[in-house]
User: What shape does this take?
Amino acid sequence: MVTNVEPLLRLPKKERMEVAERLWLSVADEQRMLVPANHKNAINERLTNYKAGKSVPVPHSVMMKRLRAQ
Assistant: This one.
């Protein structure tokens, strides 16, 4: 078990987010993760809106820049 996370908690927010993302990706098993019905519904609704031209996708790189800037 990790006993000294204090140095990580003192990192700037952007760097803490990067550490959290890397940790999550190191343990996430996307093939076995259950997706709640309301999440599936939201995805289907967004896909329908996209196909109908009602929404504009944002590239992952752009979204990550926006999130990291907050």
Remarks:
- Residues 8 and 19 are 8 Å apart (CA to CA).
- The mean pLDDT is 91.
